[in-house]
Design goal:
The protein is of the alpha/beta class. The chain is built from 10 helices and 12 strands. It has one domain: Vaccinia Virus protein VP39 (Rossmann fold). The chain is globular. Pfam families: Methyltransf_23. InterPro entries: SAM-dependent_MTases_sf.
């Protein structure tokens, strides 16, 4: 599945259908500077990430409801980790709901913004000094990671038995992706390194000590500024960019297609299953 960019292509596994960027960046964390979050349309980034606060918070509340459902309605908020926590909007919403929150963010700019809000944020899951936890969340981040299997394995190690991993990502086997082919919007090198599907993620989960319990199409709100900024990156700059930032605070669209998915992985309590 080649991309529109002549110097990048994705290789698809004949067995599981997973896609991987042929030449991944050596230091992917270097992509996520302030420029990615502000005027970063050419990297599938944002015209102004923090100007979209209203929509990030709406999406965060929906994600938190999915997490509560995955853990069970009687669950009392405990301890969660968000990997790819950006500037901390989901951490804000979860903390307001009573959770003890911890973030992992590779972008030094975004991590600093989250720490300014009082969040505990480190740059790698492996260096986070907290466990066990009730939940680990990856919202549109696994596809950007050099080693998603290693990230899931580390998440499983930190989870309590019965804890969950909640992931939001893009489905390369969706009807939208198949129709779009090389024009599929998720083919965004070099930041997007992996393309997933249900079978591949289910297999990966088992290999990392987790079990997939659901996979479903999901939705989110996206500001008009982000839509236009990623479609025509130059409009995110200068005077037009400033106008977009203003519009982004008040105008958004609900993503309608079938390629955005949420799935839940559970760490089974092996001691109970042996009884």
């Amino acid at each position: 599945m080649p991309t529109a960019h002549p110097s990048h292509r994705y290789l698809l596994c004949d067995g599981c259908g997973t896609g991987h960027l042929e030449h991944a960046p050596e230091r992917p964390e270097d992509l996520y500077t302030e420029d990615y979050f502000v005027e970063g349309g050419e990297l599938a980034g944002y015209v102004d990430y923090e100007a979209d606060e209203r929509w990030h918070r709406i999406n965060a509340r929906a994600r938190l409801r999915r997490l509560h459902h995955a853990l069970g309605l009687a669950h009392i908020p405990g301890r969660l980790v968000e990997v790819g926590s950006a500037t901390g909007f989901f951490l804000d919403v979860a903390r307001e709901a009573g959770w003890q929150t911890h973030g992992v963010e590779a972008s030094t700019w975004a991590a600093r913004r989250a720490r300014d809000k009082g969040h505990d944020v480190t740059d790698q899951l492996a260096t986070l000094d907290v466990d066990p936890v009730d939940a680990v969340c990856f919202f549109q981040v696994l596809e950007h990671m050099p080693d998603p299997a290693g990230a899931l394995r580390e998440a499983a190690r930190r989870l309590r038995p019965g804890g969950v991993v909640l992931c939001e990502t893009w489905d390369v086997n969706s009807a939208t992706a198949r129709r779009a082919g090389a024009r599929w919007q998720q083919l965004s090198p070099p930041s997007v390194m992996w393309l997933f599907n249900r079978d591949a993620m289910s297999h990966l989960a088992r290999e990392t000590g987790l079990e997939m319990v659901n996979w479903r199409t999901t939705t989110k709100w996206v500001s008009v500024a982000t839509v236009l900024g990623q479609s025509v990156p130059i409009v995110g700059r200068g005077r037009a960019g400033r106008a977009l930032r203003t519009a982004g605070r008040w105008a958004a669209v609900r993503y309608p297609l079938d390629d955005l998915v949420t799935f839940t992985l559970v760490k089974r309590d092996m001691s109970r299953s042996a009884d």
